[in-house]
Amino acid sequence: MSQDDEKIEKEMSGHSYDGITECDNPMPDWWVWSFLLTIVFGFIYFAHYESGAGPTLKEELNLALKAIEAQKQAHAPKLMETEETLAESMKDPSVAAAGAVAYAGKCAVCHGQELQGQIGPNLVDNFWIHGRATRTDIVKSIREGIVEKGMPAWGAVVSQDELYALAAFIISKKGTNPANAKAPQGEAVD
Ligand code: HEC
Fold it and tell me: What is the Cα–Cα distance from 169 to 111, expressed in whole angstroms?
């Protein structure tokens, strides 16, 4: 008997059928473990999605649709934004109050703590470079910035609520005449 034959003899399972004898070739350990893991995974998967917190396919679809809807809302053109809708959004005093906080953190470095102007223009005098200081003009300046002149565009940085709040705060401070005000820039508006 050759060495190979001996080896095969040892591995015989002792099971023979129609003269064909099977070898006993156990699956490799990694295979057995992967197999057991798939069973464990199966149980966890089933428990999570069938009786646990996992969403059903329908719920997953609804979540995805909601996310799409939210994206759409966020990018919807601001067609409905008029002086009146802006006035409505800004009329609650808490809006301007929220704007004060945002202003201190984001704008005061350039426009001054009291909006008196510094690197950027005075925002409480009667002189405006861009537009005539309507709510629409101010919202536009903040949203789109005047990038080439050093005024960043904030539309992509702050939420729409925060944007309105900032504008409301600026408007609420109109005519406060702070100390060390920067010289007027732009056109006089009334
Ligand atoms: C890096 C400095 C800088 C920061 C920060 C900054 N601005 Fe400005 N801003 C400017 C400059 C400079 C201008 C003037 C642009 C020009 O000359 O056309 C300006 C212009 C404006 C105008 C238009 C003024 C006009 O006379 O028409 C508004 C409104 C305004 N900024 C609001 C804000 C608000 C609100 C913030 C905070 C969210 C802010 N800015 C942050 C530099 C800045």
Answer: 13
Which of 90, 110, 122, 140 best tests ligand 1's pocket when mutated (most atoms within 8 Å of CB)? 110
Contact status, residue 186 vs residue 133, Cβ threshold 8 Å:
no
Ligand 1 contact, 119 CB (< 6 A): yes
Q: pLDDT band for position 75 (50/70/90)?
A: confident
Q: Which residues contact 183 (CB under 8 A, 6 or more apart)?
A: 122
pLDDT in tens, 111-155: 999 999 999 999 999 999 999 999 999 999 999 999 999 999 999
